[in-house]
Amino acid sequence: MANYKPTKLTIRFVDTLPWAERDERGRVLSYSVRDTVVKGLMVVVHASSKTYAVQRDLYAQERDAQGRRVKLGTRRVRLGDARDFLSIEAVRTKALEVIEQVRAGIDPNKPAVPEAPKKEFTFAQALDSYIDRCERKARRPSTIDGYRNLFERYLKDWADRPLKELGDDTLGVDERHRHITKKNGPVAANQTMRLVRAVYRHARRKLRDLPPPPTDAVDFNDEKRRDVIITDWPAFWATVHELRNPVTRDWYLFLAFTGMRRGATSEARIEHLNLEKGFLHVPNPKGGPKRAFDLPLSGFLVEMLRNRAKENCEIFGKDYPWLFPSHTSATGYITQGLKANQGLVNPHALRHSFATAATAAGLDPFAIKLLLNHQLPGVTGGYIHGSALGVTLREAQERVTAYLLGQIHGNVLALPRRAVA
Description:
- By secondary structure, the chain is α+β, with helices and mostly antiparallel strands.
- The chain has 3 domains: 11-103, no CATH class; 123-217, DNA polymerase, domain 1, CATH 1.10.150; 233-409, hpI Integrase, Chain A.
- Helix content is 43%, strand content 11%.
- It has 15 helices and 7 strands.
- The protein has helices spanning 11-16, 88-103, 123-136, 141-155, 163-168, 170-184, 186-204, 233-241, 246-258, 262-266, 299-316, 347-360, 365-371, 378-383, 390-409; strands at residues 31-34, 41-45, 50-63, 69-81, 273-274, 279-282, 293-296.
- Strands 1-2-3-4 form a 4-stranded antiparallel β-sheet, with helices on one face. Strands 5-6-7 form a 3-stranded antiparallel β-sheet.
- It is rod-shaped, with a radius of gyration of 40 Å.
- It starts with 10 loop residues before the first helix and ends in a 12-residue tail after the last helix.
- 28% of the residues are buried.
């Protein structure tokens, strides 16, 4: 068997190395010659082939308790057949690459584990994250249910779409808006795209590589504000008093004489009613608990709600919690109004009607906003606390009630009883 000392390998030198011999049993007596330039590089000669290889010790990256390096073993890495290399420099370059891997604690002979494909963040995941944010910010359950309903009706096929793909598909998003507009109307289409925009912007705060919101390309539909308000108050009064259910009757009157939103009115509880001080506490209006407020009650409303609480106790039991209860509703309280063909406007139209009546009664815009629990504008608005204006707002509520009763009974000078002395 040939025995060569380490030498500076060259292509010519390797070519002149004799083939390895065989012993008496026919086994090949392979031998190697090490390079003096790159430590660990060698050429291995077999009976009919010559290959370059690197041999180095492999150590773990972490040291033991005594701070010593932990040897994992010796690794010999085959670089390739000598005939595949045109220069010794190419051999040494490849050898150095392998040596760097070994120094980094990587075993070059161990098959590399392919990286798992990066999971794309989908629209459904982004929606779940956005809804979680809304729940943590105490948004009303009805608002969150509305988001889920829009998703189920118009966006369910987008559940598994990666957000990045959606962000690049501006034409597709605009087409979806136009499709919903034609099939379900302009309001439904706009509401759906507002949800898409909110969900996408929420996700983009965390995923900075997302493109701009695709809804930037959407031409939103014009939406007309509801222009249906009550102008014939005597007719409204007569229609309400023809209702067979006294709870529904009081529910409509309460909406008309306070401008309260339907959801908050339906969820009103007996425990939040203070007849002595003349207000109803609303703990979870639109905007969540941070927008909680005390709704002032006129004398007319105090008397109506006193009778309502008394009747509820007789019919539903003294422990029944709701101010406007219902035997037929799964929630235990009235959830929606009657259909328009029964002669009554949409409950939200009563909010518009109240604001119009308040203006006609001479209330200033700030008082109307506070009664409707609207956000006051500007810096000054932030300094005004409606909860500290109980007497003033009850007087304002009395003026609106007086105006409405005057319209209903044909005596514009009529004044209702006051809620408190």
